[in-house]
Amino acid sequence: MSIEYPVSHRQRVAGLLTVVTVAFLPSIVASVFRGYREPISSFSDAYIQFRYFNSLIVELTSLALLAYVIGQNRQKFSDFGLTFRLRDIVYGILLWAAATCCYRLAYPTILSTCELFGWHRTAPYLPSSRLGLGLLTYCFVVVNPIYEEMIVRAFLISETTALIGSSALAILFSVLLQTSYHLYQGLPYALAAGVIFLLFSIYYAYSRRIVPVIFAHFIWNLLYHLTQGRVAGHS
Predict the structure, then answer these.
(1) What DSSP state is assigned to residue 133?
(2) What would the pLDDT profile of 167-223 be if each residue is shown by its tens digit?
(3) 16 in any annotated domain
């Protein structure tokens, strides 16, 4: 009979930092760098597809690392709210609708504030608008919400709350991290997206249910790519 030793505070911190760093540090560096430069519009469609394929590999690898760390911590995915209930679909739809309303209400104010302070305003850099509606797009639409919500929402908020005892700080860390790697879209757009991230984080912190958040994120991604794909197809 094997003896199980408790996981130390240091081990949990190391696991959290390892997962977050591997999953998001490259995206943060690239996003901040692009936020201070004009978007490079000369990328070929083939290069855009390669970037998304590479992102998909990173996301799947990061999820595998998350699974390993959770196992090392003697935890289960169900500890982070990853269990399905039929009503999660309803809550996900309601959460998506609320996120859409919040974004549309907040964006004009955020944009006006950015202009008031003289912060740059450029057209959003959205390479996904040139991705089309192929297999790669649909794989990304499915994997990306699981990747982001499991790591930057469920794992980060749960572990941070357990380690420092403050769900408010955990929510803040989650929102700041997720907003930081969306800066490539332009500051106003990233801040407006931050409103959605805040809503998702508050919901998770108090419900401890991640499936509705994943589903809401999935709907958002799917509708966005369907819209952009149709636009690209007629451009």
Answers:
(1) S
(2) 999 999 999 999 998 887 778 888 999 999 999 999 999 999 999 999 999 999 888
(3) no
Residue 224's domain comprises 45-59+82-233
The number of domains in the chain is 1
Q: Is residue 89 included in any domain, yes or no? A: yes
Report pTM: 0.87
Residue 222 domain flag: yes
Classify residue 70: in a domain, yes or no.
no
Per-residue model confidence as pLDDT tens digits over 10-36: 889 999 999 999 998 888 887 777 655
61 versus 134: the higher-pLDDT residue is 61
What tokens does 193 get?
């997206």
